[in-house]
Specification:
Length: about 250
């Protein structure tokens, strides 16, 4: 069921948003929808806490940081004109509203299934940005980075940027932002970080081992978790390297 829904979303975006002139609108819709599951996760976690069932501060922090990251992806897309047309805004917002309640329901019933769903969405996002970079890399290198991207990746408070990078306990990633190409590389790599976090959240021992990267003396991920993350990340990168450019 999850794979079918992911396939539907992919087909919708792939067929409706083809071509260079529609790319930024595609990213606007993608990032509007991509924020929604993290809202859903925190909504359910707040409900659990209110009812006295489960209290996990770190999970709330990490999921909020993920939504903060996706917000800045959205702001980048908007700064490039991705939301210029009413029908793109309408599609993104109606889709996001429906998607929110689906994820709330799935997360309430089966959190691991919801995390797997989001893992697949983030994998699709990684491939989408990677294909765009392959097709338009040279052109993007001649375009300036939007100020919102510079503020987020270089000049702002990097605590929130580091917070969702749960697999970097010692050295956080610091992107180079010199042009628009660098911005999309950074966004692509953010999506891979989300994939890694979603994999960690699905592990049977996650309730004991998954914590904020800023938590002092947090336990190291078990070998099984690190292996699962490394194998899936390597698979995603290898598949992307073999894919020809085909967004246009």
């Amino acid at each position: 069921m999850i794979r079918l829904l992911v396939n539907f979303l992919e087909a919708l975006l792939n067929n409706f948003y083809r071509g260079r002139d529609r790319a930024f609108a595609r990213f606007f819709v993608l990032e509007t929808v991509a924020r929604v599951p993290y809202f859903a996760f925190t909504s359910v976690l707040h409900l659990y806490e209110t009812m006295g069932w489960w209290r996990k501060y770190d999970w709330l922090k990490v999921h909020f940081a993920e939504s903060w990251n996706e917000l800045h992806h959205l702001l980048i897309a908007e700064s490039l004109g991705g939301n210029d047309h009413w029908y793109d805004r309408y599609l993104a917002r109606i889709g996001g509203l429906i998607y929110y309640w689906i994820i709330v329901l799935v997360y309430t019933i089966n959190p691991r299934a919801a995390y797997n769903f989001m893992q697949q969405i983030e994998e699709h996002a990684y491939h989408t940005y990677d294909l765009f970079l392959k097709e338009h890399g040279e052109e993007l290198k001649q375009m300036p980075a939007p100020q919102v991207a510079i503020n987020y990746y270089l000049d702002g408070d990097l605590y929130m940027f580091d917070e969702f990078q749960t697999t970097h306990p010692e050295a956080f990633r610091r992107p180079k932002i010199e042009n628009l190409y660098d911005v999309f590389v950074a966004v692509r790599e953010d999506e891979l970080e989300h994939v890694k976090t979603m994999i960690a959240c699905q592990q049977p021992e996650a309730q004991d081992t998954f914590q904020s990267p800023h938590t002092e003396n947090r336990p190291v991920f078990p070998e099984s978790v690190r292996t699962a993350i490394e194998l899936q990340s390597a698979k995603i990168i290898q598949e992307a390297e073999k894919e020809p450019a085909k967004l246009s």
